[in-house]
Every structure is written in structure tokens, then in C-alpha cells.
Design goal:
Elements (H helix, E strand, L loop, with lengths): L1 E3 L10 E4 L4 E4 L5 H5 L6 E3 L7 E10 L18 E9 L5 H4 L6 E11 L7 H4 L10 E4 L6 H4 L8 E6 L10 E13 H8 L25 E3 L10 E4 L15 E4 L2
Parallel strand pairs: 7-10
Antiparallel strand pairs: 1-4, 2-3, 2-8, 3-5, 4-5, 5-6, 6-7, 9-10, 9-11, 12-13
């Protein structure tokens, strides 16, 4: 999967908002004149995607305790924080239109694990959370940043992907999920900045994750970086993606032993 423009500073001003459910980062669009000059928002393509998907924004899910918060689990374990970067299929004009189609969105999901010291990666957002403590408050960040700067050091070669839905109403079945298995760092102090926010009920804004849902026959694909993966009795479902292990026919199932 290619992450294009992730190394470039996002257009400003960036705005963070406490919407009562999460912290959302709004990214302004380039004007038509700026687009004529070659400016483009970050976008992704490749891997499970058949088209280019342009960034729409990002938001977070977190828990009241460090043993929960993420919307996905890895090896039956929840992490304290999960970030979602939302991308819209560029063949659709806007988010509302994209939500009407099964290939409308691609969401990149990133896990965070607690470390001893403050992590610099999320500083541009975390240090300003106190300004949006209350529901329906926003703040324009004084500086912009690049997406790669908040993902620095992450292994983007290993991920899981599946066809699913949004995790918040209307839960539209319009999302290709890409969940990275590597962790990003965040300290307990930084987590407390998220937990200090208030919901629309004037209660602590915590545990804003959806409960796990049945797969209902969905297949989860894994992106393997080694030609000789060591999985013990693990069944992997393959499609026509030559980047998933050895190329197989569509819907083939392979089993790997150590």
C-alpha cells in the first residue's frame, strides 16, 4: 500500500474538535487555484484498494483504563488508544456520496501502547486538548504537521484488512479497513489528556469504542512481508493480491506450519 503525500505538511489551519464522541481533526481542502499549482491532499492506493483514496480527517477512540480503548483487538487484547485516518474514494464527490457505496471509504487504524515517557509524535494534538475540554468546542492548531510525523517509526508493511462498516451511526457498510499490527507510543500523562475531556452529558469522555461485532462471514486478510511466514496451523484466506504471501487463486485457503 502506498501512502502518498504523508510526508508533506497538511494544509492549514488544522482544527481539533470535541464532538462529544471523540476528538476529530479537520483538514481543510485545497482551493481550485492551489490544485492547479499541483497541491494535493495526502492519498493512498494499492494493496486491497482499486482506486485512489483521499484523506478526509482523523479521530481517536480511547478507554478509561489502559487495558481498553481500541475498537479492534489484537490477539484478544484491547489497547488504550486507537487512531483512525479516514480516506474517501476519489471517484465520489464527497463523504455523503461515498457512504452510499461499499468501496466508498478506507480507514487506516493505528494502535497505541502506553510507554513510560511522553511521546513526541502526538504532541501537536495532545498539548492542545485542554482547550477543547468541553463538548462542541474547537481550536485551530497554531502549526500544521505531516501525517508521517505522527506515524514515525511505525512498520506500515504489516497489516490486516477486511471489508466492514463504520463503527459509529449510521454504521454504513462502506469501509475497507486496514489495521496495522505495530504499535505507536503514548504516555499515561498523554492518555490523561484524552480522559480529561467531557462528553455532551458533561461526563468524562471515555470508553468511546464500539463493542466487538461478529464477522458475519467476512474474511480478514493479512499482509505478509516474508516469503516463508511462520504460522502454526493458521488459515489465511487469499485473494488475487500478489502482496499476500504466495500468489493464489481467488478464494483459495492456505495453511502454514512452522
Amino acid at each position: 500500500m502506498e501512502l502518498i503525500g504523508y510526508q508533506n505538511p497538511l494544509p492549514g489551519p488544522l482544527t481539533i474538535t470535541n464532538n462529544g464522541h471523540s476528538v476529530a481533526l479537520t483538514i481543510p481542502k485545497y482551493s481550485s487555484e492551489e490544485e492547479k499549482k499541483g497541491f494535493r491532499l495526502p492519498y493512498i492506493f494499492g494493496g486491497p484498494l482499486d482506486n485512489e483514496y483521499e484523506i478526509e480527517g482523523l479521530h481517536f477512540h480511547w478507554g478509561d483504563k489502559n487495558n481498553r480503548g481500541s475498537e479492534h483487538t489484537l490477539n484478544d487484547m484491547r489497547l488504550p488508544l486507537e487512531m483512525h485516518i479516514i480516506h474517501r474514494n476519489k471517484k465520489y464527490r464527497n463523504l455523503a456520496e461515498a457512504l452510499q457505496h461499499p468501496d466508498g471509504l478506507c480507514v487506516l487504524a493505528f494502535f497505541y501502547q502506553v510507554v513510560e515517557f511522553d511521546a513526541k509524535l502526538l504532541t501537536p494534538i495532545v498539548k492542545n486538548l485542554s482547550a477543547i475540554e468541553n463538548y462542541n468546542t474547537s481550536m485551530q492548531l497554531p502549526h500544521t504537521f505531516s501525517l508521517s510525523s505522527i506515524l514515525s517509526g511505525l512498520d506500515t508493511e504489516r497489516f490486516y484488512t477486511y471489508k466492514g462498516s463504520l463503527t459509529t451511526p449510521p454504521c454504513a457498510e462502506a469501509v475497507t479497513w486496514v489495521v496495522f499490527s505495530d504499535y505507536l507510543p503514548i504516555s499515561v500523562f498523554q492518555m490523561d489528556n484524552f480522559r480529561g475531556l467531557l462528553s455532551n452529558l458533561n461526563l468524562p469522555l471515555v470508553d468511546n469504542f464500539r463493542q466487538l461485532q461478529p464477522l458475519f462471514g467476512r474474511r480478514i486478510f493479512v499482509r505478509i512481508t516474508s516469503k516463508n511466514p511462520k504460522f502454526k496451523k493458521t488459515k489465511l484466506h487469499y485473494s488475487k493480491w500478489d502482496w499476500v504471501g504466495h500468489k493464489k487463486a481467488e478464494n483459495d485457503v492456505a495453511e502454514f506450519d512452522e
